[in-house]
Amino acid sequence: MNNRRFLHATRIALAAALALAGAQAFAQTATEADLARRLDQLAAELAAVKAQLAQMQAQRNASGDAAKPAAPMAQAAATAPAPVTGAAAAAPSEPATVLTSYGELNYNRPNKASENAQADVRRFVLGFQHRFDAKTKVVTELEVEHAVSSADDPGEVEVEQAFVEHELRPGLSARAGLFLIPSGLLNENHEPTAYYGVERNFVETAIIPSTWREGGLQLVANLDNGLTLQGGVSTGFDLTKWDATSTEGTESPLGAIHQEMSLAKARDLAVFGAANWRGVPGLLVGGSLFTGGATHGQSSASSRVTLWDVHARWNPGRWDLSAVYARGSISNTAALNATLVGNPTLIPKSFDGWYGQAAYRLWTSGDYVLSPFVRVERFNTARSFADLGPGITPSALPTEQVVTLGANFQVTPGIVVKADVQRFRENSDANRLNLGLGWSF
Amino acid sequence: MKDRIASPRRGFAGALCLAAAWALTACGGGGTAASATDDTASASTLSAQAELGQKIFNDTSLSASGRQSCGTCHVAASGHAADNDLPAQMGGAALELQGHRSSPSIRYLATNTPFFFDAEGTPTGGFFWDGRAASLQDQAARPFTNPVEMANTDEASVVDKLSRAAYVDDFKKLFGADILTRPDDAFARMTLALQQFQREDTSFRPFTSKYDEFLRGKATLTDQEVRGFALFNDPAKGNCAACHPSTKKSDGSHPLFTDFSYDNLGIPRNPDLIQNADPAFFDLGLCARDSGDLLSRADLCGAFKVPSLRNVALRHAFFHNGRFKTLKDALTFYVQRDTNPEKFYPRNADGTVNKFDDLPAQYRINVNTSEAPYNRRPGDAPALSDAEIDDLIAFLQTLTDGYTR
What's the ipTM? Predict the structure, then answer.
């Protein structure tokens, strides 16, 4: 199937999926719709009551026997994404220290260059959470990418999360340390069981540099009306390490300058905030903003990096629909680029992207769940450049469009097998088949 | 950039390797770390050892001729390189012997390292055109006993001359009253003092060019300089930055305009070098250096060190053999070497161009022909036009230390 036909077919599929979802959600009788809504409400209320009960039991255990307090991570209820990593709903039998892990083993086979097919232990992550008392815990993740990390191998070992969370009062917690920035749908919920497709989507890797974490302080408030508010102060990006001679900045402008709290330059701090509303069962609507200085007094021109997004996820019946739009901008790039002119990769003024995704729980049997999905995304890592003068100002990049069609197969909750094909409109050489195995617990 | 050097068949780093004409003449390199913040330090803060090194650096009595010091061939006003257009400086007991290579600048060398192959196999570091010295001190030592330079018979004869210097009491005060009774130790202390001088004296790392001021946001490049800068960086045009990095590092340090690697540019043979009168003689550079450690690396024959381009506009002779006398000629060679080789190389008896004539036939495959601006053929347009070369020269002139607004 050539690209045009594939794209056409995909558009039809996506349109059909959306239409079907709408039909399922709205084409019922008023009574049925009302009944369904009340069922959803009851389910949500039951989940909340369970969580409260578990928390009370944990608190009682904590006060009575220090060896037994427990607070495992709650899995995201139903199909909605978890509010935030580490959201705790205690269960009485859990130990104080909980081992966590997730992993991704991927196979990529380019259509036009099968000699470049690769199999990779993309990520192997071990983490633990230890609860000191009912209100205080530490959350960590240690990640190995590409299986082997040594002086002669390309792998990386990374501390991906390392923060302490303390509940100030019910519904309000404070975090300190290295934590994931609330942005988009994926960054805080990046385990392979939490998203569709073998590879993470491009918008939330090229524009939002998942897995994106910073060091700092954060407040998390869960309000009774379903609103989760997050905000804080953190480290930010480092534009002084922009490498204009490489293409890294073209692949992901912010991925090229994130610091990951590794001897991070911290003269300039950033502020961030996010709001996510789950007031209607099965629906999540949210947005985020991050902005901070990124030159740290080490450049003659100071600059600010800003990234914002809006996102939504909706789970009507068997459907799982989601969409994200993210846009980043870097200020004062004319002055920054003046010292880089002529190089292949100058600093873009703006970059953005969106995707829409529809998944359908087609077949279930016991724990088995088969969910085909389609995702269309368009993104541009260099939407615009500041004017440097004729002959020197780079042209904006063409907007890439990627269509991903595939399926997730849940073997059992926590284990997923994935397969998909991807079609790139601009860089058709990247068209590929992907297979993946993932777990998370 | 690294690929070029790791792949011998492709030659070495492609780029405008403006191998400004400096050679293995007296003394070692100088300067200290390329810090953006320490470039205003005063030379008046020299330690006693460095002050002694300064005297030794300028002492002509330490040569066999009595007329040559380190500073003779590394003139501060010329960016610590030669101040004339000779392909190599004259040396020997009566300054009657011609050196073998042009005198390199010894500025901005403090962050250089001993020679090594990096993880990708790229030859890197080392001092002199062939990296044979491991340190500033090592480099500083060798010209004293080089027959075509300062021409002392041995190190003891240098120490003997030192014992009659006006500053010998300072030397003994620093290194012990009996130091001169141990000539090997005394010579080592002498070169150590030279190294210390080059490390401490900020004139070896002033970072006072217009380009430095531009990076500090205190100067603005003219339109022509900006055009030249863009051509310098553009991988499809000058591609100079591939070997001569031009951007600040993330630690804030200003660029040195060299990656301390090696390249084989196929520089034409220079008939002005007396050694080239022998048609069987070829200066093979890296593979043939005197330690003999790279004799088996035929792929490195013809490679020479990539020099810094700072102060390149002050040079009067370019490349290891001083073949070109002006920046315009040197840059024209870069971009027309492969489009118009007849401009630079002699013709064979059959009328064909004897391209890369300063290398034996078996090593000509080592010449970098894969990257811009070399990746052309006769009849192609050069990577840079004549006007663009002028733009590039305008930019290179911003690399001269001592800019004042």
Answer: 0.78
